[in-house]
Recover the amino acids of this structure.
């Protein structure tokens, strides 16, 4: 994949060469996740945590995926999933394992979970401040990235007899970005604002939206629109 990992940003860390990655001593796991501490970390009972834990993920199921270093496949058939709360790729060594770990965060490493590609992008040269993005389209000039974020909401007691107690939950939000040479522009949902972002080809984009009945609130249509925009530049 071209230009998915560098994005014009200064890298804080570098990783071993591909030959080292193939070596059994290469460690892709940044840390083991302690399952017993998860409910305690949120101040919840085990039952409360188990009731909401799946909400923290883009997809709560572990899916067979691939791990790449730059364009080289370094590990195949790895059970993994994206944790939108912790902003981590969780991986297992074997599908039958109950325990799992977090993949090392490095801009030279990206994963493909079934059809979804996740890249790690540093922020201001820092891996610690960086995060994972789902690549929806990879164009010659513009890419479309998706960021899924889960926020923990604590349980709330009803303030009056007319209200109900609110249970704990993870609330997910999705943000789309038009990316060019490391610059991230948040995609608006309204058609008028999208047209303004694509002003250099405004007439063509306006016609394309009308002819193809594009709804910018729909992810599939947003992908089509950005792909088309990139193709006519």
């Amino acid at each position: 994949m071209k230009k998915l990992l560098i994005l014009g940003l200064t890298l804080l860390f570098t990783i071993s060469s591909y030959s080292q990655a193939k070596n059994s001593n290469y460690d892709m796991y940044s840390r083991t996740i302690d399952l017993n501490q998860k409910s305690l970390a949120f101040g919840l009972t085990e039952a409360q945590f188990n009731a909401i834990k799946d909400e923290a993920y883009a997809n709560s199921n572990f899916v067979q995926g691939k791990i790449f270093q730059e364009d080289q496949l370094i590990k195949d058939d790895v059970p993994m999933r994206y944790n939108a709360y912790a902003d981590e790729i969780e991986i297992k060594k074997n599908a039958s394992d109950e325990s799992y770990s977090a993949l090392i965060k490095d801009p030279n490493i990206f994963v493909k979970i079934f059809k979804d590609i996740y890249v790690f992008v540093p922020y201001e040269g820092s891996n610690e401040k960086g995060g994972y993005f789902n690549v929806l389209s990879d164009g010659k000039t513009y890419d479309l990235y998706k960021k899924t974020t889960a926020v923990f909401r604590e349980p709330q007691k009803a303030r009056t007899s007319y209200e109900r107690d609110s249970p704990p939950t993870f609330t997910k939000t999705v943000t789309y970005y038009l990316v060019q040479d490391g610059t991230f522009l948040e995609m608006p949902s309204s058609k008028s604002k999208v047209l303004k972002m694509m002003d250099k080809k405004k007439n063509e984009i306006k016609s394309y939206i009308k002819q193809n009945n594009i709804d910018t609130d729909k992810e599939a249509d947003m992908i089509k629109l950005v792909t088309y925009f990139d193709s006519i530049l």
Q: What stands out?
A: The longest helix spans residues 219-231.
